[in-house]
Amino acid sequence: MIPAPPVALGALLPALIVFGTGVLVLLLDLVPPRTKDHLGGVALAGIVIALLGSISLWNHETRAFRDMVLLDNYALFFHVVICYAAALAVLLSIDYLRRNGVESGEYYALLLFSTAGMMLLASAGDLLIVFLGIELMSLSLYVLAGLFKMRLASGEASMKYFLLGAFATGFLLYGIALIYGATGSTNFDRIAAAAAARPRDTLVTIGLGLLLVGFGFKISSVPFHMWAPDVYEGAPTSVTALIATGSKAAAFAALIRVLTVALRAAQPDWSVLLWAVAAVTMTAGNVIAIAQSNLKRMLAYSSIAHVGYMLVGLVAGGVPGAGAVLFYLLAYTFTTAGAFGAILLVERSDGEAVEVGDYAGLARRHPVLAATLGLFLLSLVGIPPLAGFVGKFYLFGSAVRAGYLWLTVIGVLNSAIAAYYYLRVIVYMYMREPEGVEVRLVPSFAGGVALAIALVGIVLLGVMPAPFADLAQVAVAPLLR
Amino acid sequence: MEYLPILLTFAFAAGVAGALLGIPLLIAPRRLSPVKLAPFECGKDPIAISEGRFPIKFSTVAILFIIFDIELFFLWLWAMLFRRLGWFGFVEMLVFLAILMLGYLYIWRKGGLEWE
Which value does ipTM take for this structure? Predict the structure, then answer.
């Protein structure tokens, strides 16, 4: 008899709940009733159960499958962020899909599979699980980006995302192979031990570079950001919200764990590299965003700039730096999902209202929505007392304490540049007369709930940040021991 | 030096492929005629360009074939070790097949098996 290996599915429980819900949605799609109204509800219920389960598992660390899957506080923190992102995306989707006539069970199933991939990525303890998680996440997102089959832009988004994503995954795999070749393992802890025994190994350094190319694509840092504006613009807005928040958070989760645990010995190398990447990413993102008149493209470049800010925290390192990145991701998820959600609820008679000009005079006609979108934009600028301000405060504070003064100066200057294009939208909404085609507000209860949750999130994180920042630090502390 | 066999394999593969392309180029008689240069379609005159439309059903069938092919591949390995794997292996295989059958059910209900 071959002895049965231990099967500890508990370590995968939150991801399995989401995955199981995805399968359930696919099956429910096959049986009557033919309306699809309930599928969004089922998907949402699955995500909420996974969210509550993740919260209840806090402080119960589990390792399974020979340390390939780690369900520690770090993973659970990201599970919560990812579940929030997915839940907001589902809430925003329900009426949006019906409006565009593309309701389908496959949409929710793919969204849930993608979410499960993100959660797997957050709890990866092995480079192969990182690869598996990235594939599960990305393959679903490639299809979701092309959901509007009849729109050229959507097909272009899907195609571009798929081709470039597959190419980036190739780099990631090559990096994994080289690191395996140099250290004899794909497990984070064993890589760390082997790399510490042989410092400055050329093979590890090349592997590190290739891994950073792969991750750089997934988090859309310069110079691997080219896909982001086209994909964000062409993909359905609800999917864009998920790509911009959930997939980025998941990729950051794996990146931080790989860098701080597996490749800790190479920290001098990667912190220098990321210093430059952070500076260029912030600057390029913000400067190009100024020139955008399409709101979705503008938010895409703004999200690139925010990746630059988060990399500052990673460069600063230590518990304060990594903790600040986690907190920022939480704040950023609420803010960005909210901003895309607000855009999704505004409509022109001939399609989506995405040009800045469409928002002229919005405050007079729809004061509540204008105020909501304004608050999200102010949080992105980093105005107190909203979440964005506190997030940036923690990030730049950790960088100053770690001695990265110049990087902080670049970051603060960038925040000032960024204020211009965010505030321009607010100026349009409040100080201009309506022009061109009239826009209308789409009535959507679920969308309203999503915006309310995101709004409560950014205000709560902004007014009362300490408990959440503490949780973020508790989550990262074991990684950096 | 431990990678030498791999290098030799590459060299051998390149050599064979090169020879298959190169030798005919050198020694084969070349008497071209319009018929020989025409695109080939089972001996008939070509009736459409090759980039034209073709039914996507073929790819659906191909995907189904691959799914069942790979299923068989795993089933084969499992059957070889069936007794030694015991009940654990049996249950694992049932789980695997159940997931696969869900996919099959989905394709069936979505009309993936209908030709028209």
Answer: 0.72
